Amino acid sequence: MMRVFLIFLFLGNILLAQSLKITSIQQNQNSIVLNFNQNIKKQDFKNFSLSNNGEIRYVYDIQAELMGSAKVFKFENNIEVKIAQNSKEKARLVINTPKAIKILLEISTKKAVLKLPNANKSVNSPSIASLFETSPSKANIAKAPPKPTPATNTNRVSKKKIIVIDPGHGGKDCGAISVGKVCEKVIVLNIGKYLNEELKKRGYQVYMTRSKDVFIGLRERTRFANNKNADLFISIHANAVSENKEKLEGIESYFLSTARSERAKKVAALENKDDTEVMNYFSKQSFLNTLNTQRIVASNRLAIDIQYGMLQVAREKFKVVDGGVREGPFWVLVGALMPSVLLEVGYLTHPKEGERLNQSAFQKTLALGIADGVDSYFAKNP
Ligand SMILES: [Zn+2]
After folding, report:
1. pTM of the entire structure?
2. I need a labelling partner for 264 at 20 to 30 A (CA). Which of 4, 38, 195, 307 fits?
3. How far is the CA of 239 from the centre of ligand 1 (A)?
4. How far apart are CA 153 and CA 156, in angstroms?
């Protein structure tokens, strides 16, 4: 019966052939109201949460197009709500809060209301899973670490942030090859150099794992970052596929975790292959041991900010596809003791994107976007 109903619903949607749009957003005292162009249901909202040092991010993904630009709303108790287009079909609403809170999602016809708690009332013992009326899928929850680590960061606040840029591949390892027959190692080094300049201009202390065409093992790269006491590690790569070359394009930002999606596994396999020794070094166990929850959450945030930064800047001049923030088992990120991301800045095998990636104007644009992402990460995570 249910199935018949669903099929009917499905056909209905096809016949209507109108995509869901968020037409306007209002902020009320303790709620956010989203207005849509058509009737919605709870299933249009997918939620999950992320937690770091007791600070929590409640994420709502909506299969809809956000009309107008990204927006930020501030509430009492340091609650901040952001909404932006996350991918072509998906808008993402993120509620940032220093404490676990109870959020109520109410839906009526074309309207969704997210009710936040009244000022100064918050849930005492946070159990993230219990905070949703609809239970979020387990796979998406990063639980809060048992004890937040105090102090160590505080004496750092006034210090210059240290960033290590890691242009992928190099020397004997060309990486992937672009449509114009240019090696990935050349393109990512250029982007890395532009990023180096830009971040230095913005007052960061920056190091590059390589600033010329040399081969460096994957292990060396994070070891270098650890020795420099880096606050962030940013590995830059470009993607490639052997099939569907015309179809696959777009920017993706990855953070380290055990692989989830098939796509992440494929990308990881490609990026991992330049150093087989590293595979033996990191037994499966030691790999899992290095997966510190706090660092994963921080890396996830960094990936979100950089992905957003790249898209914002690039889309001012170019038509760029949002491949999203993804997680995958990248060996180059394994040894890093700081938040770290691997950026796949586009598909070298895509006819248009592959060409564009080799142009300095686009490379500079990407560097600006990454730098914006770094800025906004530190603004929120000082
Ligand atoms: Zn690569």
Report:
1. 0.58
2. 195
3. 7
4. 5
